[in-house]
Automatic annotation (TrEMBL):
<dbReference type="InterPro" id="IPR013320">
    <property type="entry name" value="ConA-like_dom_sf"/>
</dbReference>
<dbReference type="InterPro" id="IPR050551">
    <property type="entry name" value="Fructan_Metab_Enzymes"/>
</dbReference>
<dbReference type="Pfam" id="PF08244">
    <property type="entry name" value="Glyco_hydro_32C"/>
</dbReference>
<keyword id="KW-0378">Hydrolase</keyword>
<keyword id="KW-1015">Disulfide bond</keyword>
<comment type="similarity">
    <text>Belongs to the glycosyl hydrolase 32 family.</text>
</comment>
<feature type="signal peptide">
    <location>
        <begin position="1"/>
        <end position="21"/>
    </location>
</feature>
<dbReference type="InterPro" id="IPR013189">
    <property type="entry name" value="Glyco_hydro_32_C"/>
</dbReference>
<dbReference type="InterPro" id="IPR018053">
    <property type="entry name" value="Glyco_hydro_32_AS"/>
</dbReference>
<dbReference type="InterPro" id="IPR023296">
    <property type="entry name" value="Glyco_hydro_beta-prop_sf"/>
</dbReference>
<keyword id="KW-0732">Signal</keyword>
<dbReference type="InterPro" id="IPR013148">
    <property type="entry name" value="Glyco_hydro_32_N"/>
</dbReference>
<keyword id="KW-0325">Glycoprotein</keyword>
<keyword id="KW-0326">Glycosidase</keyword>
<protein>
    <recommendedName>
        <fullName>fructan beta-(2,1)-fructosidase</fullName>
        <ecNumber>3.2.1.153</ecNumber>
    </recommendedName>
</protein>
<dbReference type="InterPro" id="IPR001362">
    <property type="entry name" value="Glyco_hydro_32"/>
</dbReference>
<feature type="domain" description="Glycosyl hydrolase family 32 C-terminal">
    <location>
        <begin position="374"/>
        <end position="570"/>
    </location>
</feature>
C-alpha cells in the first residue's frame, strides 16, 4: 500500500475514472469527451509563454543554430533570424555572445544578404578556427539564380572581443553546385572544417546527387579555394537530401569532447549527423583516413530505425568543441507548435533547446546528452523526497517549487522485473504511435510511471512524461514518452505523443533516471542518463488563467516502483538578451 505521503487516487474517485479524466479527456474523438471547455480562451499573446532560460531573440523569427564556437574566452552563437517578422524570410545571421552559456548579450546581425552569392538569403553554416587562431565562417547563400552556393566570412576586427563585424571573402561564392547529377537547389549547410593527415582542410556539405542523399567532401589548403573530392564522405539511396550536416569524433565511454582536427585517440569513433524527416538522425562509425570516407558501423535498411539526437520538437542541430572545458556541446532548434497567425500575434517564434554536452556511451553504440552544467546555476529553493513507494494507481503531488520554471531529477527503482511486457520490434518503426496507443492511462506490467506536469487544478490540461519497460529476446527495452496531447485546451495546436526507445541492462541496474526541465512553454526531458531526449512545446491555458500549475509523480503499472531520490528546484530567469553599451 502507498504510504501516508501518497496522493491516493481512490481518495477522490476510482482510479479508472480519475485517470480517464486526467489522461483521456479529448476534443477530437480519440476518447470520452469528459473535459468541459472554458467559455472564453485567453489570448496566446502573453509573456508567460516566453521561455525564461531557453535561448531566443527578443522578437521575430529564429530557426537553425549556426556556427557556435568558443573563441578567446567568449561563446559565440549565430542563428538564422528574420529581423522583420515572426515568420521565415529575410534571413540574416543573428549573433549573441556569452561567457557562461546562460546569460547572453545580443549583438547586431553578423551576416546579411548583400552580395550576389547570398542576395536571396544567408543560410546555415559553420565556424572553424584555423591555425593561428583565425575564425572563419562558411555559410550557404542563395544566389541571383536561386542556386545554393557556399560563401566565406572573416572577422573584420579580430581584437574585438565580441567579433561584431564580419567581412565577406572577395572570391565568394567559393563553392557552387557543379558536377554530374547535382541539384543546384539542394546543396547546403557546410560542416565545421577539419584537417586530414595530408595537412589539407576538409568540409562536408549536404547535397542531392542523382536523386540520392550525399555528404560531399571538399579539400583546401587555405580555406578559401576548394576542390571537390571524387567521392562523397558518405552517401545513401534511402533518401534524397540530407541537410544540416555535422561530423565529429567521439571516444567510447569518455564524456570529454574531441577536436576533429587534433590527433584522434586510438579507439575513437566518428558521428555523421544529418537532418531529414523533420528530425535529426545520426550514424556512428569510423573515419577511414586512407579512403577519406565515413564508414558506419551498421547500415540500416529502413531510415526510420536510425537513432535520433532528440525524439521531440528538435531540428537542425549543430555541435562545436568547447576547448575551455574539453567537451562537445550541441545546440538544436525547437519551433513553435501553435499556428503562424499565433506567432504573428505574439511577435516571436522559435527557441533553442538547452545547450547539451554530448558524448558516446561505453559500448560505442549510442550518443548520450545532458544539459551543460552551467544551467545548474539557475537552480534555487531545492526540495527533495526519499524512499517513496508508488503502487499501481498512486499519484503524489510535488510541492514547494515554481512548477512553471523547474528542474526535476528523479530516480525510479524497479522492485521487480518479472512482469515486464513482451517487446515487439515493429514498435521501433514508429515509437510515437506506440506512445499514443500505450498512454499513461493504459495499465502495464512495469509502467507507465513518471511525471505529470503543467497540470491545471482540474486536470483538464496536463503533460505526461513517462516510461514503460519491455522484455525483448536479449535485453530490456525502455519506452520513454512525452505526451502533450492533453497539454492545452487551446485549439489549433500540434500536440503529439513523442517517444523513443532505449536499451537498458536491468539485470545490473534497476534505477531509471529522468530529468525534466520545465520552462513555461518548453518541456525538455532526459531519460536513462541522456539515452533518450525529448523536447516539446506546450501552451496551457492555466499558465495565463492561474499563473500556476500542479506537478505529480505517478505509477500506473502492476509493479511497485520505488523513488529513492527525487530532487527539484525552482529555476531563475536567465538574461538571454542583454544589450551591450
Amino acid at each position: 500500500m502507498a504510504q501516508a505521503w501518497a496522493f491516493f487516487l481512490l481518495a477522490l474517485f476510482s482510479f479508472s475514472s480519475y485517470v480517464s479524466r486526467i489522461f483521456l479527456c479529448s476534443r477530437n474523438g480519440e476518447g470520452s469527451f469528459l473535459c468541459a471547455r472554458a467559455p472564453e480562451v485567453p489570448s496566446i499573446v502573453s509573456d508567460r509563454y516566453r521561455t525564461a532560460y531557453h535561448f531566443q531573440p527578443p522578437k521575430n523569427w529564429m530557426n537553425d543554430p549556426n556556427g557556435p564556437m568558443y573563441y578567446n574566452g567568449i561563446y559565440h552563437l549565430f542563428f538564422q533570424h528574420n529581423p522583420n517578422g515572426p515568420q521565415w524570410g529575410d534571413i540574416v545571421w543573428g549573433h549573441s555572445v556569452s561567457t557562461d552559456l546562460v546569460d547572453w548579450i545580443i549583438l547586431e546581425p553578423a551576416i546579411e544578404p548583400d552580395t550576389p552569392g547570398d542576395i536571396k538569403g544567408c543560410w546555415s553554416g559553420s565556424a572553424t578556427i584555423l591555425f593561428g587562431g583565425q575564425p572563419v565562417i562558411m555559410y550557404t547563400g542563395g544566389d541571383v539564380e536561386n542556386h545554393q552556393v557556399q560563401n566565406i566570412a572573416l572577422p573584420k576586427n579580430r581584437p574585438d572581443l565580441y567579433l561584431r563585424e564580419w567581412t565577406k571573402a572577395g572570391n565568394n561564392p567559393v563553392l557552387q553546385p557543379v558536377g554530374p547529377g547535382m541539384n543546384p537547389g539542394e546543396f547546403r549547410d557546410p560542416t565545421t572544417g577539419w584537417i586530414g593527415p595530408d595537412g589539407l582542410w576538409r568540409i562536408g556539405i549536404g547535397a542531392e546527387v542523382n536523386g540520392y542523399s550525399a555528404a560531399l567532401l571538399y579539400k583546401s589548403e587555405d580555406f578559401l579555394n576548394w576542390n571537390r573530392v571524387d567521392h562523397p564522405l558518405y552517401s545513401s539511396s534511402a533518401s534524397t537530401m540530407w541537410e544540416c550536416l555535422d561530423f565529429f569524433a567521439v571516444l567510447p565511454g569518455s564524456n570529454g569532447g574531441l577536436d576533429l582536427s587534433a590527433a584522434t585517440p586510438k579507439g575513437a569513433k566518428h558521428v555523421l549527423k544529418f537532418s531529414e524527416d523533420q528530425c535529426d538522425k545520426y550514424m556512428i562509425g569510423v573515419y577511414d583516413l586512407e579512403r577519406d570516407a565515413f564508414v558506419p558501423d551498421t547500415v540500416l535498411d529502413d531510415r526510420r530505425l536510425l537513432p535520433r539526437i532528440d525524439y521531440g520538437n528538435y531540428y537542425a542541430s549543430k555541435s562545436f568543441f568547447d576547448s575551455k572545458n574539453r567537451r562537445r556541446i550541441i545546440w538544436g532548434w525547437t519551433n513553435e507548435s501553435d499556428s503562424s497567425s499565433d506567432d504573428i500575434a505574439k511577435g516571436w517564434a522559435g527557441i533553442y533547446a538547452i545547450p547539451r554536452k554530448i558524448w558516446l556511451d561505453r559500448d560505442g553504440k549510442q550518443l548520450l546528452q545532458w544539459p551543460v552544467e552551467e544551467i545548474d546555476s539557475l537552480r534555487r529553493n531545492e526540495i527533495s523526497y526519499q524512499g517513496l513507494d508508488l503502487e499501481k494507481g498512486d499519484l503524489y503531488e510535488i510541492k514547494g517549487v515554481d512548477t512553471l520554471q523547474a528542474d526535476v531529477e528523479i530516480d525510479f527503482e524497479l522492485t521487480s522485473i518479472d512482469d515486464a511486457d513482451s517487446f515487439d520490434p515493429s514498435w521501433l518503426l514508429d515509437p510515437e504511435k506506440h506512445c499514443r496507443e500505450a498512454g499513461a492511462s493504459v495499465h502495464g506490467g512495469i509502467g507507465p510511471f513518471g511525471l505529470v506536469i503543467l497540470a491545471s487544478s482540474d486536470m483538464e490540461e496536463h503533460t505526461v512524461v513517462h516510461f514503460r519497460v519491455y522484455k525483448s529476446q536479449k535485453e530490456y527495452m525502455i519506452l520513454m514518452c512525452s505526451d502533450i496531447r492533453r497539454s492545452s485546451l487551446r485549439q489549433g495546436l500540434y500536440t503529439p505523443a513523442y517517444g523513443g526507445f532505449f536499451e537498458f541492462d536491468l539485470e545490473k541496474e534497476r534505477k531509471i533516471s529522468l530529468r525534466t526541465l520545465i520552462d513555461r512553454s518548453a518541456v525538455e526531458s532526459f531519460g536513462g542518463g541522456g539515452r533518450v531526449c525529448i523536447i516539446a512545446r506546450v501552451y496551457p491555458e492555466a499558465i495565463i488563467d492561474d499563473g500556476k500549475a500542479q506537478m505529480y509523480v505517478f505509477n500506473n503499472g502492476s509493479t511497485t516502483v520505488r523513488v529513492p531520490h527525487l530532487r527539484a528546484w525552482s529555476m531563475m530567469t536567465a538574461q538571454v538578451n542583454l544589450k551591450k553599451g
